[in-house]
Amino acid sequence: MLLRLVRENLAPYKGAVTAVVILQFLQTAATLFLPTLNADIIDQGVVRGDTAAIMSIGGWMLAVTAAQVVCSVAATYYSARTAMRVGRNVRNALFTNVETFSGREVGLFGAPSLITRTTNDVQQVQMSLLLTMTMMVSAPIMGVGGVLLALNQDIPLSGILLLILPVLFVVIGLVLRRLIPLFRRAQRQIDRVNSVLREQIMGIAVIRAFIRERSEEQRFDSANADLTGTQLRISQLLALLFPAAMLVANLATVAVIWFGAFRIEAGQMQIGALTAFIAYIIQILMAVMMSMFLIMMLPRAAVCAERIYEVLDTRTSVTDTPDAAELEYDGGRLTFTDVGYSYPGAEDPVLHSISFEALPGETTAIIGSTGAGKTTLLNLVPRLLDATSGTVSVDGQDIAGVTLASLRHGIGLVPQRAYLFSGTIASNLRFGRPEATDAELWEALETAQAADFVRAGDGGLDHPVEQGGANFSGGQRQRLAIARALVVRPSIYLFDDSFSALDFATDARLRSALKPQTRNATVVVVAQRVNTITDAARIVVLE
To answer: What is the dihedral of CA 275, 280, 281, 282, to 10 degrees?
Structure first.
């Protein structure tokens, strides 16, 4: 999955990737060339006391070092820019696909998991890509080049490499075998922590009202402790790698100096060559450690890529059919014919054999006990969910055969939870109709009985709205949500228990003001209060 993700998203940046490869090659070549120059400066300059040779070779070393720095900085710049753009594109693809999900798909993953996949998982892939682009050329070239140049300095002494490299690979393999399942478990536990935290923040009032702070603290501590334990185990395994690698490196250096001293004493090797050989041993081990660090990151990135593609490969169950037609509203007559709906995995359908008709100019009320399926029934109209049996029609056209955009264009939905977006009152009211004038916004506010508190606020229509409308009361949020639906001027109004937070007087004034505004439209109201539905032309009771 990780290779697929990288391949698909790096395609637009072939030029940048090519530049990174070339720059990394030049930087690594310069790094490998420096120990040879250092050996020459020792053997031809220091040992012989030749100052001119020292200055000449030293100048070349400075030039090679400068080239190495320039190439390294440029390669890192292009790598970082490319990795950030890939991360941006993946996040955008995830967001775009999630935006198409119906309630069924959102419920399948859960909001906390979708947030984690869009943020944390993408960040892990992004960081792994950055490290890969930074090391994908330098590590193998430095490793292979170091071995060849070490052989060039002294072949018998290079036999030490045959001992240290297999040891390193065995250590890496044993650690990776334990790391991959731990990474997978850690991502699931991050989902769990996000889920618990989100529930506690959203339900803080309920927690305090029932004095459940201690119980919720224990629930969060349990989820947090599980994640902490897994992360500690991962950290312990990762921490084991570097000391093991440094131990092998130091033992290799000691062995090189020990056996190299005998070869120098026998006249079979020069001091500069021994110095260069030690440098190449260190470079080889550095290449192995870079590869090891990259390999440590890849398992977690691979798990994250799997989770990302679980979302990207999921297609919404609510979509336009290939031959979907544009819906032409002619009043908004709404017809349910033997409609049923079952949630995924449920033993029984929540809706069964629902048949009724809601006509323009009339109000149809839907009542029933909690859990009877009232909200589910309402969500079938704008196709937030698709009926699993039967048909829902608007003006004689089966909504399954029309485009979602044309269907929803004529529907004004006020959901059970009156949600407002951060911004201003005006931006929220124009959410469904951006071209609406200020006069139209005030007209909708007057009808929704919201004009008074909007005028009283600082800025009027430009009064700021916090996320979720947290700076308004429940009744104010409901009235603003009703005004938002009125601005759209739809053919079908869907009120999902939208008057529950209003006092009886405001409720009565609002219903009275709504009548002239909705006289030519179909109105469907889900309600708990009897007085809210006394004027309904028909009442549908769900059991």
So the answer is: 90
Tell me the residue ranges of DSSP E strands in 386-537: 389-394, 397-398, 411-414, 423-424, 464-465, 492-496, 522-526
Rounded Cα–Cα distance for residues 413 and 407 (Å): 12
Which two tokens mark 147? 């071995």
DSSP β-bridge partners for residue 392: 336
Tell me the C-alpha distance between 533 and 526, whole Å.
9
Q: What distance in Å separates the CA atoms of residue 240 and residue 234, rounded to the nearest whole number? A: 10
- Which tokens sit at 295? 């390999």
Which tens digits make up the pLDDT trace of 431-484?
888 999 999 999 999 999 999 999 988 888 999 998 888 888 888 999 999 999
User: Across the strands, what pairs with 525?
Assistant: 365, 495
DSSP 325: B
DSSP string across 128-177: HHHHHHHHTTHHHHHHHHHHHHHHHH-TGGGGGHHHHHHHHHHHHHHHHH
Residue 488's CB: how many other CB atoms inside 10 A? 21
pTM of the predicted protein model: 0.69
User: Cα(248)–Cα(351) distance, rounded to whole angstroms?
Assistant: 68
Rounded Cα distance between 514 and 532, Å, is 12
